[in-house]
Amino acid sequence: xxxxxxxxxxxxxxxxxxxxxxxxxxxxxxxxxxxxxxxxxxxxxxxxxxxxxxxxxxxxxxxxxxxxxxxxxxxxxxxxxxxxxxxxxxxxxxxxxxxxxxxxxxxxxxxxxxxxxxxxxxxxxxxxxxxxxxxxxxxxxxxxxxxxxxxxxxxxxxxxxxxxxxxxxxxxxxxxxxxxxxxxxxxxxxxxxxxxxxxxxxxxxxxxxxxxxxxxxxxxxxxxxxxxxxxxxx
Length: 234
Fold this sequence. Notes:
By secondary structure, the chain is of the alpha+beta class. Helix content is 33%, strand content 26%. It folds into two domains: 5-108, Alpha-Beta Plaits (2-Layer Sandwich), CATH 3.30.70; 117-233, CATH 3.30.1330.60. It has helices spanning 5-11, 35-39, 66-78, 89-96, 131-146, 164-184, 219-225, and strands spanning 22-29, 47-50, 56-63, 85-88, 103-104, 107-108, 117-121, 151-157, 192-198, 207-209, 215-217, 227-233. A four-stranded antiparallel sheet has the order 2-3-1-4, sandwiched between helices. The chain has a four-stranded mixed sheet with strand order 7-12-8-9. Strands 5-6 form a two-stranded antiparallel ribbon. 33% of the residues are buried.
């Protein structure tokens, strides 16, 4: 079930109090994790949610103060979840009010700078890395350099303009551009795995059908689909 993250964060932990504005995210993964993955590390109570792009996020609970949440975050790190992070729900509400990449088409994306899954975006029809993309890749490279146990899935996507075959080729070029940049930063190629999806699985609709059957192009949506997903894992 894919749900709005703001709704998930507010509703999944409600217990009659509206003052619990901090959530502790244990981790986020491309695939659902078995309960044993958490219980073997001493985490028995958690909530699983998924977002529009299919990421599985796991939360430890809701807390009234950041200090309370920080104590739990440190506990999660000690139990083997190095990317555990605090989500400030009020901060996310503010982000939802502006045109940012974390809220679009009614789906909320957590602005999580410590996440082990990140996105980089590309200009139309190009596989050239932008300055913003290189900055994100530098952050990923730093993680990979610091933790030799980490590996990286590099997932290539496009918008819906063009033929499926051309989009597969373009998505592959984007994924290779990201991988090659990281290789130049000193990351071994055998730690990175490319997967190509082309125009499949858009995070936002590329177009909208009108009542008379015509398709209206949505370029503001399409730009979020021209992406490479960078997913760190052990």
